[in-house]
Amino acid sequence: MTHITIYHNPACGTSRNVLALIRNSGEDPTVIEYLKTPPDRATLERLIAAMGVPVRDVLRQKGSPYDELGLGDPKWTDAQLIDFMLQHPILINRPIVVTPLGTRLCRPSEVVLDILPQPQQGAFAKEDGEAVVDAKGQRVDKS
């Protein structure tokens, strides 16, 4: 078993799908419900750096106070945006997954397949029925 951590929101379908894909690879990840146990500043900064994405890419707009707080305004610095995420954890987009192969914001949920150390152990379909992995554990080609 490898050490895998998922920053998870059980109310989010994408997050549930990602957790199920991790488990479909035979792994039992550490699950952090980040709305109940938000990361501290150092952890959030480390996650963002490990993903190699701009801070704004980690901000969740839908279902959050993003518009109310005017976070689309370019005046906000990265440090200020992180302050907002720490004050309002719902602003942290999810799920974020950390594995020995990398750290990713797994949207869409199939992104997690790129960083899982173990192959899928069987077929997998998202909650909406969309096939992601076939019976042989191979990613379904959507082209």
UniProtKB/TrEMBL annotation:
**Keyword Lipid metabolism part of the UniProt annotation:** no
What this protein catalyses is: [glutaredoxin]-dithiol + arsenate + glutathione + H(+) = glutathionyl-S-S-[glutaredoxin] + arsenite + H2O
GO MF annotation, one: arsenate reductase (glutaredoxin) activity
Q: What EC number(s) has UniProt assigned to this enzyme?
A: 1.20.4.1
InterPro entries, per database record:
Arsenate_reductase (IPR006659), Arsenate_reductase-like (IPR006660), Thioredoxin-like_sf (IPR036249)
User: Pfam family of this protein, just one?
Assistant: ArsC
Q: Show the CDD domains listed in the entry.
A: ArsC_ArsC
Q: Which domain of life is it from?
A: Bacteria
Which UniProt keywords are listed?
Arsenical resistance, Oxidoreductase
The family this protein is said to belong to: Belongs to the ArsC family.
Protein name, as recorded: Arsenate reductase
Q: What is the lineage of its organism?
A: Bacteria, Pseudomonadati, Pseudomonadota, Betaproteobacteria, Burkholderiales
